[in-house]
Amino acid sequence: MRKLIVPFLILLAVQLFAQVPSQSSSEIFQNIKKLNVLGSVLYIAAHPDDENTLMLSYLSKDQLVRTGYLSLTRGDGGQNLIGPEQGYNIGVIRTQELLGARRIDGAQQFFSRAYDFGFSKTRDETLRFWDQDKVLGDVVWMIRKFQPDVIITRFPPDPRAGHGHHQTSAYLAEKGFSMAADPTAYADQLKYVKTWQAKRLVWNTFTPGFTNKPPTGEKNPFISIEIGGYNQILGKSYTEIAAESRSQHKSQGFGSAPARGERIDYFLHKVGEQAEKNLFDGIDVSWKRVSGSEKVESLILAAIKNYKVDKPSASIPDLLKINSELNRLDSADLYVKAKKEEVQDLIIACLGLWFETNPTEISAVPGDTASIRISVVKRSDYPVKLVSVSWTGTKKDSSLNLTLATNEFHLFPAKALLPSDLKISQPYWLEKPIDKGLFQIDNQQDIGFPENRPETTTSYHFEIEGQQFTFSRPWIYKFTDPAEGEIYRPFEIRPAVTTTITEPVLIFPSVQPKTVTIVVEAQRSDVNGTLKPDLPAGWKSVPASRNFSIGGKYQQQYFTFSITPPTANQEVTFKSIASVNGKIYDKSIRTIAYKHIPSQTIFPISEAKLAKIDVRTTVKNIGYIAGAGDDVPAALRQMDCQVTMLNEAALSKDLGTYDAIVVGVRAYNTESRLANYQNKLMDYVKNGGTMIVQYTIPSDQKVKQIGPFPIQLGRDRVAEEDAEIRFLIPDHPLLNYPNKITQKDFEGWIQERGLYFAQDWDSTHYQALFSSNDKDESKKEGSLLYTKYGKGHYIYTGLSFFRELPAGVTGAYRLFANMISVGKK
After folding, report:
1. Which of 8, 555, 583, 649 has its CA at 20 to 30 Å from residue 521's CA atom?
2. CA Rg, the chain, in Å?
3. How far is the first Cα of the chain from the last one, in angstroms, to the nearest whole number?
4. Could you report the per-residue pLDDT of 371-390, keeping only the tens digit for each?
C-alpha cells in the first residue's frame, strides 16, 4: 500500500455528510433514467410533518422530477416527545429530521425565515407575528431559485386548513406564484436569481381517511393521480418509501407503518394554466427545453440501454460522454447545472470512489492548527488519477498525480492552520436573536438553506479519461461507538472558551442569596482568564469574579457564585462573561444528541433569568411522574422543593411520604405503566394527597379515567398568550393561598395560555377556576379543574406550565406553588 504524507492543510465546505451516500446498482440505474427528465415541483407547507411524503416519493422516484419541499418554519413551536428541548432547540432537531426524511424520499429541503411561534388559529394572527413582506419574499425567492414547473400546496388558504400557519403557507404560495414572475416585486433578489413563472399551482387536497374518494363540494376542477405504485427497480412501493420517510419525525411520534395497495390523491386547480390529466400537462420535461441539447438526450438513452446491473462501472464511458456534452451547453442554465451534478454523482457511484477528510478531534478554534486525515479509495477497475488535493486556506494544491489502484486505500495525514476569521458553527438562523416571529437573517443567499454551508472543506481533483473533475467535501468527524459502530458528526468551529450557566432561571422568594453554577469549558489547550457574572444594578455576586486556568482541551471547571437579589421584586437577565487575553467570550455550548440525527452543537448567549418575586409554598416533598419533554421538575426545585422522580420502583413504594405528586405533560399518553398504578394514585389522593395532572392528549390515553371522577378531555386551546383570563371563583383557595393570584400573574406568558383543555366533566365534583378564549371564539372553562376527593385534592390543568416555568414566567410559578400547596395549609 502506498502512502503519502502531505504537509500543511485547511478547508471550506458544502454539505453535511462527508460522502455522497452510496448508491446500489438499482439506484444508479434509476438515477441514470432521471437524467432524461427535466421537470420540477415545489411543495409548500408550514411545518415539519406537513409534507405529503408519499407525494414527494412519487414525484422524485416515479416521475423522476426535481422535487423540493419548502417548510416555512422549522417546527420550533411544537411539543417534543423524545426530550426536553423547546423553542429553537426543537427546531434544530426537526431540521435534521426533515433532512433525514428527504434522504429517503429523494426531495430537497428548504426553509423560510419564519419562526414557529406556536399554534395559531387564524391567518391574520399568523401574519401579525410574521412580517408578511419578508416571509412572502422568501417564498418568491425560493420559487425564483428553484424554478418549479408546478407548485403544490398542502393546505387551502382559508379556515379549512385549521392551523393559521397552514392557511398562511397556502396564501403566501398563491401570492408568490405571480409575484415571482414580476420584475418589480423584490427586485433586489434579481442580483442573484431571475424571474420565474410556474405553469400552475394546485392544492393537494385531503381524502377523508385516505379512502381514495374524490373531494366533494369543490367548485374548482381537479385531477386524480394514483401515487401508491410499486417501483420494481427499487423493490419498494412509494407508500413504503413514504412511511420510512415520515418515520424520521421521531420528536413528534410519527412512526408510520407502510400501507400497500392503491392510493389516489387529488389536486385542485388554484392558479395558472389548468391541468387536464396530470400535473405536467403542457410542460415539456424533456431535453428539448434546453437549447442545443439534442445529443445529450441520445447519449442518456444509450446509457440507459447499455447499463449492466452487475457492473455499474461499465457505464462510466457513457457518463463521461454525457458530461463532456453538458460542458458544451450554457453553464448558467439551471438544468444544465443540476444534471452535471447528477452525472458527477453517478460517476462517483459507478467508480466506487470514496474520499473524505476526518479531523482527529471533533472541533477546533479559528486560528488554531487541526490534525486531519484525508482518505481516498477506488473500488472498481476503471482507471482514475488523483491529481491533487487542496484545503481551506492553502495557497496552492498539493500535487499528487497518483494513479489509484483498485481497492487500494490511500491515507494522507496532515496539519491544517485554520483561518482566524472562520465563523463558529452556530446555525446561521440563530446568529441573531429571534425577532417576534422571524429569524433575523442578513444574507439573502442564506435563505432557504436547511443548515450552514460548512466553513471547512477539502477539494479533490481527479482525472478520468482525460476529463478533469473537482469534488468538494466538508470535513467530518467520525468515531466508533462500541454499541452503534461508526458514527459521523459535523466538525465544529468553536470559540476559545464557553461558559454555561447550569440553571436557565433562578427564582428568589426572599432576599436570601442563591448559588449559581457556571461551567467554563476550554475549546483549546492552555486557556487562562477571568469569569464573572455580569449583573444588573442592585444585584450582588460573591465573589465578583473568579480566575480560571484550564490546561487541557475540552476540560471543564465549575465555579459557584452567591447571588443576592435586591429587596424589591424584579425580573432581570444576567450574562456570564469570560475574558481571555483581552477578548470577551459570552457564548454557552449545548449539544443536542439523538441516535436518529447527527449531533448538533449550538452556542447560545450565556445568560439566565433572575427573578425576585413573592412566591411561597407550604410543601417541600414532591413526587414527579415524567412526561414527554418536561423541565417542570427544575422549576419546582427553584421553589426550594425536593423533587423525586417516580419511576416504576418508586411508584411501587409508599406514596404517602409526598406532599404532592405531579404528572408531567403527556405522561398518560406515553407511559403505559400508569395504568398499573392509577388505582394506587387515586388512593393516594383519597388518603390526603395532592395530585396535579398536566395536559393529556385525548386520542391516546393509556388510562381511560385519569381523575377520581369522569373527565372528558378535548382539543380546546387558547393560543393567544395574552388572552383575557377570567376568575370564575375568585375566593377559591387555589387563587388565594399561599399566594394571592391576580391578573398580573398572567402577564408575560409565552406562546399560549394552554392546550388540550377538559371538554366535559362531572360538574357536581369538579370546579372550573378560569374562563378564557381566543378572539372571536366562545369561552372555554376547562383549563384548570379542581376537586376534593376523600381527604385529598386533585387538579387537571391544560395551562402550559411546561413552557411558562422554564421560561421564568413568575406568575406561573406563583399559581403552581398554590396548586402543590393546596393540601397543606
Report:
1. 8
2. 30
3. 80
4. 999 999 999 999 999 999 99
